[in-house]
Structure formats: C-alpha cells, structure tokens
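Regression test case RT-17, inverse folding.

Input:
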C-alpha cells in the first residue's frame, strides 16, 4: 500500500535550499557530538559512541551535521528517495563524505541498523501514523548514555497552519499551484494575509506544501509530549526551543501556564537521554576545551564582533575580541584547577551555550 507521506516528500522534497547553500562551521556548534555528549554525560564519547543517526533527514540536514562532525560516522535515513538524492548531491558538492544514506520508514524496526550515540529526529515524529512507536524504535537504537533530539509541533504554535490545512482539505486544494492561487486572493487584514506576512514557509513550493498540504500532521500540548516520553525509558534532559528555561521542570510549568491562555513558546524542541549516568559534582581535575566547531571562528586573525545564532533557546552573547581571546585559550584542553574563580564563572556561561566542553 502506498505511503501518503512518502508520496508527499517525493513530490515536494523539503527543504528546498540551493545546492550551493553553505553554512559556517561555527553555526553548527550545537550539532557537535562531543559537546552534546559531554553536556549530559560529563565525559567524552568513546569510539563506539561516535555514531550519529539523522532519522528523517530531508534534503539538507546531513550537510550541517557533517560539517559539525567530520570525524563521526553519520547515517542519513529518510522515507523519500528523492529527498535522499538531493541530500547526497548537496553533501557531495561541499565535499562531505562521512555519511551513509538509507531509504526507509523509521517506524520499521528492520530499517535502522546498529546503535548510535546521538540520534536527531527533528520535525519527524508528528508525521508518523504512530509517533510513540517511532520514538520507541529510536530509543532501542541509542547506546547507554545516548542522546536523542526531537522537535514536535505545538498545538498553539501550529494553530494558523492547521486551520488553513483543514480548510484546503475541505476545499479539495491538493497542489501548491491551487493553494497559491487562493493565497494570492487573501484579503488585506485577513487571518490568511496575516499568516502569509508572518511565515516564510509559503515562499517556496516545498515550504508551502510542507506547511499547508501535508497529508499527516499531529500537534501536541505539553502534557501530550510528556505522556509520550513517559511511555518510554527515556529521560527528558533539556528543552531547547525559544526562551526555554534550562531547568526542564520549571519549563514545563511555564509552558502549561502559557497554554492556559492559548499561547505557546513555539514548537517543542527537546533533548532526551537513555541511561544517562552523570558523574556527580564537577571535579577540580576535569578538563575544559573549546567546541571544535568554534576553533576557526575565534582565531587570532579574526576581527570585529562575532555573533553566533542561538540554538539552545536563549540568545548568545556577542563575542568581542576579548571574549574570543578568552575562548581561544581552550583550543588545547585546560584543567579546571588552573582557572581563577572569575574564569570558572565565565566557563559556566559558555558551557551552557555549548561553546565550551567540560569532561572528566
């Protein structure tokens, strides 16, 4: 039986970035396996733990993941063969070759082979017939200490898209061409016109199709997200959507309060862990090093201020010359005991941002 989601992405591969589109390595810092693993495990991953799975990679994700992790082995899995071909072309054009490509449905436990230290499934589970079953499949393929990042649609953040998507379905609008024709007729000041002004997704054919014509979409309130996680053995480690509180329990309270007023912090971005075994309080002999993705960005010959886009919910500070000089001393790992109290405080800030990595 044909899969409507596969047919959708074979027709409208997403996202549709130009093949020449590139990223600075410093912008991929939050995808670095060493930084993510150390953030939650207080140690560096072993060789066996340096495998990454992108479960639902689309046309673009393998490229920045490879930029962030040139020494890791990356498996890119997607339901759509056409999306995988474009992802392969993009990586080949930019000289990224540490990726294996696999076409299949992540809900099928026979499709994924091996175990992984890090799995990314960003914006995927809510397009499955059974999201919980898909989450459990991914859980089974995480090594102990492994990290899983997911993004799920929020009921309130997706309110406008879902209203339009349901209306299009009732009207028989089943192609971007038909949708565009209706969107162009939106009256000034209408909800539809306001949506078009606020969202950049309808600017491309694939973006419009993904946002408004997708055949299978689920949205969640926070308690639905928590219920799904509770049906696994995964641990909620961190929320990483916009303005997220670093303490997950406090963030849950904040989201619940927002939802009481019909609001949302945006779509939910979460880090989940499997059998995370933190080593306790930070030891004075622990080592601190710069996130490898930032080495060239803080180089001695870089001038002016550097702004790196936020990836963990809060804004990153502007890095002036003095800030880059401070970070540069950690290109070679430094022992915590060698730092002053002021330097330890600065390290704590940069650790939360994943700019610095600390491990025992």
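Golden output:
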């Amino acid at each position: 039986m044909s899969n409507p989601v596969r047919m959708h992405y074979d027709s409208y591969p997403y996202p549709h970035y130009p093949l020449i589109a590139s990223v600075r390595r410093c912008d991929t810092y939050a995808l670095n396996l060493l930084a993510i693993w150390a953030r939650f495990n207080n140690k560096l991953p072993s060789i066996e733990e340096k495998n990454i799975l992108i479960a639902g990679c689309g046309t673009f994700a393998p490229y920045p993941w490879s930029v962030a992790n040139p020494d890791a082995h990356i498996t890119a899995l997607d339901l759509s063969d056409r999306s995988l071909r474009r992802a392969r072309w993009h990586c080949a054009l930019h000289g990224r070759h540490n990726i294996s490509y696999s076409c299949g449905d992540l809900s099928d436990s026979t499709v994924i082979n091996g175990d992984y230290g890090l799995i990314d499934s960003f914006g995927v589970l809510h397009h499955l017939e059974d999201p919980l079953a898909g989450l459990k499949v991914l859980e089974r393929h995480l090594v102990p200490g492994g990290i899983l990042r997911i993004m799920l649609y929020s009921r309130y953040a997706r309110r406008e898209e879902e209203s339009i998507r349901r209306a299009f379905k009732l009207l028989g609008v089943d192609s971007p061409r038909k949708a565009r024709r209706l969107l162009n007729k939106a009256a000034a000041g209408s909800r539809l016109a306001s949506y078009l002004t606020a969202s950049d997704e309808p600017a491309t054919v694939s973006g419009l199709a993904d946002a408004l014509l997708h055949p299978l979409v689920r949205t969640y309130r926070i308690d639905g997200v928590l219920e799904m996680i509770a049906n696994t053995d995964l641990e909620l480690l961190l929320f990483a959507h916009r303005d997220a509180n670093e303490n997950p329990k406090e963030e849950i309270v904040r989201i619940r309060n927002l939802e009481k007023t019909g609001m949302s912090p945006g779509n939910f971005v979460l880090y989940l862990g499997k059998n995370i075994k933190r080593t306790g309080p930070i030891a004075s002999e622990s080592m601190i090093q710069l996130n490898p993705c930032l080495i060239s960005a803080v180089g001695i010959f870089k001038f002016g201020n550097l702004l790196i886009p936020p990836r963990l919910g809060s804004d990153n500070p502007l890095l002036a010359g003095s800030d880059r000089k401070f970070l540069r001393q950690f290109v070679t790992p430094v022992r915590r005991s060698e730092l002053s109290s002021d330097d330890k405080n600065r390290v704590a800030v940069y650790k939360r941002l994943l700019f610095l990595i600390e491990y025992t």
